[in-house]
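User: Structure tokens for this complex, please. No commentary.
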Amino acid sequence: MDFALSDEQKLLEQSLRRYLAESVPATRVREIMATETAHDAKLWRDLAELGAAGVLVPEVHGGSGLALLDAALVQQSLGHAAAPAPFLATSVLGPIAFAAGTPAQQAEWLPRIAAAQTVLGAAFTELVHRRDAAGVRESNGRLDGTALFVIDAGAAAAFLVAVDRARIALVARDAAGLTATPLATIDATRRVAELRFESVAPAEWIGGAAGVPELAARVLAAGRVALAADVLGACERAIEMAVAYAKQRVQFGRPIATFQAVKHLCAEMIAELEPARSLVWYAAHAFDHRPEEAVAMSLHAKAHLAEIGTQIVRTATEVHGGIGFTSEHDLHLWFKRVGLDRQLLGGPEVVRAEGAALHGW
Amino acid sequence: MDLSFGPEYETFRAELRAFLEAHRERAPRGGIVAAGGSKDAATLAWQKLLIEHGYAARTIPKQYGGYGAEPDILKRVILDEEFARAGVSAGVGGQGPDMLVPTLLEHGSEEQKQRWIGPTIRGEVVWCQGYSEPNAGSDLANVQTRASEDGADFVVNGQKIWTTTAHLADMMFGLIRTEPNEGKHGGLSYLLIPMTTPGIEVRPLGTMTGRAEFNEVFFTDVRVPQANVVGRRGEGWKIANTTLKHERNMLASAGGLEASFARLVELMKSETRDGRRAIDDPVLRDRLLRLEARVAAAKYHSMRMLTASLKKEFPGVAALVTKLSGCEISHQIAALAIDAMGELGVLYDGSKHLRAFGMWQFQYMFSLGLIIGGGTAQIQKNIIAERGLGMPREPKAA
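Assistant:
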């Protein structure tokens, strides 16, 4: 029995956190998010150097060949830094999709993912549900329709696209008939977009034109665990900031951290966060080692972290008082990061309804 | 991360299962929870059998009547899991075996260990805990029950409250002010008091549940030998804190939450409104899934804390939050059960249409008691903030 991170995992986390603290402070995050694509090629290459970009890429293709728990630790570190990096689509959803691909597809794409030589976007929202009549259909080998809330679309050179809610196509950004329109969200650290398909010929299918039945469930489960991990990291940061601020801010002649009203808010945040961390670890572990529980646990992790994350970033803002409401203060970066994480690939009610259906309830 | 137990433990589990299968008819009835206090022949015989096989008092040294095994947290976990799974009594529990015995092993004199541990783990001597007082609740060190010296004895006067099983107990372990000049914390001693001593009066304390799970205990010139102090005089606060640690872990077990959640699911599948099952109501079902995630988080959190214990690592603030969240989840599970039943959920006291003997209302109210007991939620939050997050204490009132 060993329900803990390994020494290698702790080392990976430490080296990432050290790099991000030094090289991607909030001032740098703000510079990157002010650019059109919110993409920093150097940051992305550095993440490859640190073994993060290829964390899920098999070693034969130049990656680290690790598991979803390791990827979750990377995502958590990125959430902690509010780092603009296309890790979720490129380095989590990409390798998991390509695991169902042909050897040729793997040989073409996986080494480039591990080396941060490409960026992928993921159009998977319609695997969950359709809003504004979105959805991409295939007919006579051509794709038509729209995909909404495409993840990491800013600098993506190609998109993984859910087609007819079951199959996954790979489409180049410059494919004829494809238009990508950025969607402005509250969270400027990552870019989502709308893709419009007008008789687009897909570059290729992942898992064959007929699709692999398990593939959609698998990419959704991994994506949801990663989003839960991102919330976890963001909340760690929000709590650190709230506690540090409360210790330093003086009112009524003493640090506000001495007031029980403030202390209890901080205690409530950490009391929610720590068991949630254990849940995220287990959900990530189950993805690779307990397949019969993988989907159910990914749903629990996604929904639960969305709930407690929303409460934590709100509470952290209240602990900061007025300063936490200003644009100048950095806290809102994490408030908004959690806001987007909560809705991507299904908000908590949507995800819980899936969980109930999975139980047969 | 490796969640398997390994062959040695699977053997231990298999033997335990075989034992429970073979002997379950001899176990006293009434489920796995041993509240303590019952001294009927079946309970004592069952406890004796469990100790002989190493399934109770497992790590208590042989010279004190235990089984004498090395402490092994995983075997402890397997014991809890398998007794729960079989629905068989895990033997004598309660504050004597669970709180006093570990305290005596750590702080007691050889004579005290010889005298008390054996009869306590066999279930022959029942204990109650005398900590809280009317003016020593959250501010527990404010104990006012005092002992004055008279020859080789102490003479005890005062009052304790919230004393579970006091009406059944042979003995009390309590915090008593023996050193009036040594300040608030330094003036307390940890004293063992025979409940049959003249001058002790036990009155049941009714609670909102309609039952009397607790008592008040009054002391009027109660003579107790000074030799009954555990550790040294004035060390009572330190010693009591080691026992409280055991209690806080006892109050919030993840296995109990899972079992309670499973009962809730069964309830929501069987209760109907306008012919529709409660579990088919999307709002109630959503609340159910919310709770399921919380129960899962508590379960894996306890595995994480277990791992830290195995590695002898201190998990920091993560270890301080279990009581706060565990008791709250138990309360929320009962709250959803009541809402799923609606008007049926407020029936009580053997009413017509009553479900499960009123268990859910009892759990709803009693778990509120647990949120308050053993250190209120607000005191827990102070501890989490101060010890866990390093936030400064409130300045002392001028």
